[in-house]
Structures are given as structure tokens and as C-alpha cells.
Specification:
242 residues; two-stranded antiparallel ribbon; elongated
């Protein structure tokens, strides 16, 4: 009888040597540390070249040829530069536009339509206080108003009266608002200018609100000064541009 065959038993030492050889040929990659694909590297180089070219143009150091399709420099504006955007503009229309924005301070009480709130806040539309003397109007807005008043034949006595909101505005801003209310909702009257507001402020240092009786002497009095444009303009018309 032949000797019984023996089953193959692998030598663990040989397996260790084989595994070490494989690791030398190709290392195991850790998660997140795989090599960047060549396509990504190529696209990155293209972006870097284009970006560098644009930075060079903006820095004034160098630029691409104008035939380069990647040159996105904006074409020069052919329109002439206007160094003074307000040059030649109508001062009345400018005051009306700015005054419309400033009127937000008044609109809460007198409303956007200028009609006020019956029994609480008097109207500005058609009001003799608005269309009357500019001196009374400036003084009211500059120092405030308290007590009973009559507007368009109706009595009003708002608790606390009208606050001196104009004191917190610049002379120009207050003039614009007053010009606006004098020429909106069917009203039509002369402009109130910054110089007019400044004149009243320099002459009157009142620290308390006015009453209707206090303001009686100014009811129909206008602050002297040139009216540059709009209704009742006294300034000479500007020469037409050639």
C-alpha cells in the first residue's frame, strides 16, 4: 500500500512576504487622500491662466491681446461724462422730487392725499396755512403749533399740537418739503427756498410752540427772497444750452 497523501499546508511566512511585496508595489489609499483626476488639474490651470490675465488687465501691468475671446474688459462708455448731474435741472422740479420723499415725516398725520384726518389732523390740500404767507408756514414747521386752530372753516385742537419736526431737518430739506406741500393735491404757490428757511431760523430762536394768535402777524407775510423757478418765479430764465 502506498503512503497516505498529505494535504498542502501554506507557510504563513510565505504569505507575509507576498503581502509585503504587494504593499511595496501599490500602497493602500486612505479615504479622502486619493489623487486628483488629471481633468480637474487641467481645468484648474485654465481658470488660473484666465484669472491671471484679468487681474493683469485691472492692475495695468499687462493684458491679453484684444482678439483673445477670454478678454471680458468692458468697452468704454461713448457717452460724455456729466461732472454735475444737477447742472441745468429745474430747481422747482428738483425741490418737488426731494420734497416728496421728505413728506413721509408729515404723511402719518396729514395723510398721503393731504386731506388729514377729520377732527384730528387738519388737511394740507387747499389749506390757507399752506398757501398763505411763507413766513407763518416756516415758523409753524420750525417751532411747532399748539392749541385750537381753524383750517378751511373747521376747528382742530390736536392733543399735544404739532411737533417742530422741521427743526430736525436741514434748511434745504425743510424748504423742499414746504415747496412740495404748496404744489401738490391741487395746491399752487411759490417755492420756499433754503435761504428763506435760514433767514427765519437766524431771526427766530423760539424754544416753545406757537399758537394761532401768536402767528397772526405772519399770516400773509412772505419771507423775502428770489423765487428761482415754478409758480411766481422771479429769477431770470437760464439761457438755453447750445
Amino acid at each position: 500500500m502506498s503512503a497516505p497523501s498529505q494535504s498542502f499546508q501554506p507557510d504563513s511566512t510565505d504569505l507575509d512576504r507576498l503581502h509585503a511585496a504587494v504593499k511595496r508595489e501599490k500602497q493602500d489609499m486612505q479615504a479622502g487622500r486619493e489623487p486628483v483626476p488629471m481633468l480637474v488639474i487641467f481645468l484648474g490651470m485654465i481658470v488660473a491662466i484666465i484669472g491671471g490675465g484679468q487681474l493683469g488687465v485691472m492692475a495695468g501691468g499687462w493684458s491679453f491681446n484684444t482678439s483673445n475671446p477670454f478678454n471680458f474688459a468692458a468697452a468704454p462708455d461713448p457717452r460724455p461724462a456729466d461732472k454735475n448731474p444737477n447742472a441745468g435741472s429745474d430747481p422747482f422740479q428738483t425741490a418737488m422730487k426731494k420734497g416728496a420723499s421728505g413728506y413721509a415725516v408729515c404723511g402719518g398725520c396729514h395723510q398721503g392725499n393731504g386731506m388729514g384726518i377729520p377732527g384730528q389732523f387738519p388737511p394740507l390740500a387747499g389749506s390757507e396755512w399752506v398757501l398763505g404767507g411763507t413766513e407763518r408756514l416756516i415758523r409753524v414747521t420750525q417751532h411747532g403749533l399748539t392749541g385750537a386752530i381753524t383750517v378751511k372753516g373747521q376747528g382742530y385742537n390736536t392733543p399735544g399740537g404739532m411737533m417742530p419736526f422741521g427743526a430736525a431737518m436741514s434748511a434745504g430739506d425743510l424748504a423742499n418739503v414746504l415747496t412740495y406741500i404748496r404744489n401738490t393735491w391741487g395746491n399752487e404757490a411759490t417755492m420756499v427756498t433754503k435761504e428763506m428757511v435760514e433767514k427765519v431760523r437766524s431771526e427766530e430762536k423760539r424754544a416753545t410752540q406757537w399758537t394761532e394768535a401768536d402767528l397772526a402777524p405772519f399770516k400773509d407775510k412772505n419771507v423775502p427772497g428770489e423765487i428761482p423757478a415754478g409758480p411766481g418765479a422771479t429769477a431770470a430764465a437760464a439761457p438755453a444750452a447750445k
